[in-house]
Amino acid sequence: MNKPRKMPSVTIAECDKIPRFSWTSRMLFDYADALREIGRLSEALLAYDELKSYPIPEEKRWLLPLFRGQTLLEAGQHSLAEQSFREALILNPSTTVASVFLASTFTVQEKFDSAIETLRHALYLKGDIDEVLVNLGINLRAKGKLDDALKYVKEALKISPTYPEALELLEDIQSALSARKT
Prior knowledge:
Blueprint: H1 8-16, H2 25-37, H3 41-51, H4 63-74, H5 78-91, H6 96-108, H7 112-122, H8 129-142, H9 146-159, H10 164-181
């Protein structure tokens, strides 16, 4: 069973009490993520870079560029975030997670076609397909393809009937389609 996650400021305070040379890769990873969560993005990026010199199990290596990419995305460094998410995809090509984040870099840059292509590929991967479907709906809505967007959102709601973002998106799309008819 997983331990409950610590609050980010607690993680930082606890790590700061321990000499840095004795940190494990997990401690440094948690520290970097806590820094990211409280908005100390440049320090988080330095910690993620430092992690590259730590031994990380092969099956978890993809998480480093994934979280680094998330930090870069939050910092508005979209092209660097895209590179990190592509690296995460190379290290773990079977999961939807990196694809959804990669698509989000395209979405914030209004590269909707690239986001849609990435997400359509992700439909064949393992993971949260409902999230992939909702993101497809978001990007198709942005392109004005409301009927297609509606189809994907309804598919997402078949998987997760109470998914708040999908329900909100469904209402918005249905309202827009109704407005078009009047």
